[in-house]
Amino acid sequence: MDKAINNVVQPSVKSLEDLTLFINDSSEQPTREEFYTNYPFYKYWNSDSNEKLLNPEGLSIYIHIPFCIQICDYCFYNKELIKSKEQVNEYVDFLCREIKMVSEKYGLKTRKVNAIYMGGGTPSVLTEKQFEQLTATLYEHHNVDPDNLEFTVEAEPGTFSKSKLEQYKANGVNRISMGVQSFDDEIIKLSSRKHTAAKAIQSIQSVHEIGGFNINIDLLSGLAGETMETWEKSLDTALGQSINLLTIYKMKTYANTNFFMKGVHTKEIELPSESREVEFMTFALDKLLAEDYQMWSTFAFSKDHSKSGYIEHTWRGQDMVAYGVSSFGKLGNINYQNLNTTHLYYERIKNDQLPIFRSFDLSFKDLIVKELLLCAARLFSYTKQEFIHKFGFDYFDLIPEAISQLTLKGYIEDRTDELVLTKQGILFGDFVSKVIADSVKNVFAKDKIGYTY
Ligand SMILES: C[S@@+](CC[C@H](N)C(=O)[O-])C[C@H]1O[C@@H](n2cnc3c(N)ncnc32)[C@H](O)[C@@H]1O
Ligand code: SF4
Q1: CA 193 to ligand 2: nearest atom
Q2: Which ligand is nearest the CA of 193, by number?
Q3: Residue 361 bridge partners (DSSP)
Q4: 1, CA 20 to 30 Å: which among 120, 381, 390, 419?
């Protein structure tokens, strides 16, 4: 071992309190032996990260297509009614310019892409020509290997044909995520959607017939007019479609939706109460687990252990480049969002400027809170070891009181190796996440955590 390192005085300073004691302790004499020009000390370096340096982690791509054939009453996403083919042509042209500009600006062309997610709005309204132009541009400016890629397109029943599906497949798409919401015609109509349950079934069938796709269906728990009978019918119909992925979102009544206006503001329609929605979700949970579906997140179920790689990568903190109006991305520790009106988005790109609207540079503490909020209590494949590997400490040690309270109240199982949600914990998964994240924030705020090296 290096002699100089051996001679360095190694005070046991682990916290501010220790430091004060150390400085006040007359027996510890200062020396001028230390000469720090580098951190971490070389003796800790090894070859573990060489590979990561040569091949930086994969990249996800999100592309937002804001056009829809209707505006659904519950929907809070950035969307607009589709009026003409020219309107979408113009958008796709700007998207392609953005892709070229961003890839060049950030030097992304060589970085391996492992997931593409085309969301909306309704990406399946793109014509075959528009889709072709978009994917050709993506493939030209990114390092995409179709054999090692998850490529998802969000599709609405009735907005795609078999020929479109063939084209998706030829261009590397291997996952279709279909918004169905309900298989009861009355409930569908009450949400201002245009398709019927029969149309949804027919659309799912055509995806099966073309083959080669993982199929996800979105259902919404807590839609206007829902009863236990209509909900059971929706679940049974979904289960009868031989799909391998099912996502059940709790319908949240956002202030920018028609349901908020009609259900909360003017009260012209009745939305299910909070406790009724919990009953719907409890029923769904029991049914799906009885049918051998596994949960890979607190609201996503899978038949054969398949999942959304895109969501997993994103939650776990992988970089994601965002294209299109209002889309969200993350590069390094900076989260960012594009401008959220097409007019402003076009203006920027016309001037050869990136269309970024706002951003947030996450500190080390933010990264920890984010990891706990999105992964620890949400992903069913997230071990404590993964957190320790990333951040160097065990969060159970940091918030023992919150952990024992959550165990006592039946939200998490009594374990020390991993955070495992009980059924009650799954139903209130976001609550559990929040309790954990808030407790950690509290500890950070008091600055009780020591810094060790
Ligand atoms: C952006 S949409 C795209 C789906 C496609 N446009 C369609 O409607 O078929 C993705 C999903 O978000 C979900 N979603 C929309 N509004 C929601 C809300 N207020 N609360 C929870 N989930 C919502 C819906 O389940 C929808 O399928
Ligand atoms: S749910 Fe889908 S179709 Fe309906 S408004 Fe939202 S994005 Fe458009």
Answers
A1: 4
A2: 2
A3: 334
A4: 390
Supply 344's token pair.
């402003």
Query: In a mutational test of the pocket of ligand 1, which residue from 74, 217, 430 has the highest number of ligand atoms less than 8 Å from its CB?
Result: 74
Closest CA to 224 of 75, 379, 2: 75
Return left, alpha or beta for 143; rule: phi > 0 is left, psi -120 to 50 is alpha, else beta.
Answer: beta
Q: Give the residues surrounding ligand 2 with Cβ less than 6 Å away.
A: 68, 71-72, 75, 77, 79, 120-122, 156, 179
- Residue minimizing CA distance to atom 21 of ligand 1: 251
The alpha carbon of 23 and the centre of ligand 2 are apart by a number of angstroms equal to 63
Q: How much distance in Å is there from the Cα of 35 to the middle of ligand 1?
A: 58
Phi, psi of 372 (to 5 degrees): -70, -40
pLDDT tens-digit series, residues 54-112? 887 889 999 999 999 999 999 999 999 999 999 999 999 999 999 999 999 999 998 99
- The closest-lying atom of ligand 1 relative to the alpha carbon of residue 247 is 25
Across residues 393-408, what is the average pLDDT? 93
Q: How far is the CA of 75 from the centre of ligand 1 (A)?
A: 6
Structure tokens at 269: 């329609």
Would you say residue 10 has pLDDT above 60? no
Tokens encoding 121: 């709005």
Which of 249, 250, 251 has most ligand 1 atoms within 8 Å of its beta carbon, as the pocket-test mutant?
249
pLDDT tier, 453 (very low <50, low <70, confident <90, very high otherwise): very low
Q: Which two tokens stand for residue 27?
A: 């027996």
pLDDT for 194 beyond 70: yes
Q: Tell me the average pLDDT of the chain.
A: 91
Could you tell me the sign of the dihedral formed by the alpha carbons of 151, 152, 155, 157, in that order? positive
Which atom of ligand 1 is least distant from the CA of 250? Answer: 21
Phi-psi region of 152 (alpha: psi -120 to 50; beta: other; left: phi over 0): beta
CA 139, 145, 146, 152 dihedral sign is: negative
- Looking at ligand 2, which residue's alpha carbon is closest to its atom 4? 72
Q: Where are the domains of the chain?
A: 3-44, 56-315, 382-446
Q: Does domain 56-315 have CATH number 3.90.870.10?
A: no
Max avg pLDDT among 22-26, 53-57, 129-133: 129-133
Dump pLDDT digits (tens) for 258-314.
998 888 888 888 899 999 999 999 999 999 999 999 998 999 999 888 889 899 999
325 near 316, Cβ under 8 Å?
no
